[in-house]
Backbone:
């Protein structure tokens, strides 16, 4: 089972590097990237889960509708990606349910930072995917965290996949920078060990970042962005489909695992 996901947020990474960047500018980048992602998924006939900020949903309701119309899942990713607040767990759910007319089952905190378990339970979320159980200095220090899904306070915790022994992260930066053959090999090994694979990307990765030096983006983010990243995603999906793996949403995963228990 493949749990493919996208953190669908307003592009704000330049602000981390001292660039004054408006919401409108961030939305332009992310909308273009999301359209590219949706085209790739449609061409391959696979489903994914889109963790959306309420900022993105409010400013691109037509894109949210396309996500729904093409059979993907919408889940919550806070409100303002640059300024996450404790109230986002409730506010993002309320906003996205109003925009979509659907119940939001899942949450992922911006930048995969910690989030209140009690608040997730109180708001009735079925799952939380805010954990990258890797060791990445300055970002994630989770060597003792569970690698695979587990329950806490009635909410299924679905960490991003890392390799079984060294906990090498298999998220977006890895596909940008590793040789594809090596990345595919690590994904296959993780699938054999865990029986499923969870990864995540962002719409702005599928934008031609190399054409915008004014964004001051580090090389490891600019590397293989835009059309090259779309090609890498396409080849990853095709490899996994050729090996018989099924793409499902996070809610479908929760239902499968809950019904088995």
Residues:
């Amino acid at each position: 089972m493949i749990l493919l996901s996208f953190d669908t947020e307003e592009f704000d990474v330049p602000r981390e590097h001292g660039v004054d960047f408006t919401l409108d500018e961030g939305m332009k980048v992310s909308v273009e990237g999301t359209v590219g992602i949706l085209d790739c998924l449609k061409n391959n006939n696979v489903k994914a889960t889109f963790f959306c900020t309420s900022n993105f949903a409010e400013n691109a309701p037509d894109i949210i509708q396309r996500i729904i119309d093409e059979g993907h899942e919408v889940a919550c990713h806070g409100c303002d990606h640059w300024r996450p607040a404790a109230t986002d767990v409730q506010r993002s759910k309320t906003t996205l349910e109003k925009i979509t007319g659907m119940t939001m089952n899942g949450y992922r905190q911006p930048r995969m930072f910690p989030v209140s378990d009690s608040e997730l339970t109180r708001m009735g979320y079925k799952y939380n995917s805010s954990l990258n159980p890797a060791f990445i200095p300055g970002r994630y220090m989770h060597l003792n965290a569970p690698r695979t899904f587990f329950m806490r306070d009635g909410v299924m915790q679905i960490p991003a996949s890392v390799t079984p022994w060294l906990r090498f992260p298999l998220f977006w930066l890895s596909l940008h920078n590793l040789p594809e053959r090596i990345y595919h090999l690590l994904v296959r090994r993780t699938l054999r060990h865990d029986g499923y694979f969870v990864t995540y990307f962002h719409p702005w990765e599928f934008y031609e970042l190399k054409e915008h030096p004014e964004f001051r983006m580090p090389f490891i983010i600019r590397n293989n962005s835009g059309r090259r990243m779309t090609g890498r995603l396409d080849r990853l999906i095709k490899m996994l489909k050729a090996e018989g793996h099924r793409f499902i949403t996070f809610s479908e995963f929760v239902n499968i695992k809950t019904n088995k228990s």
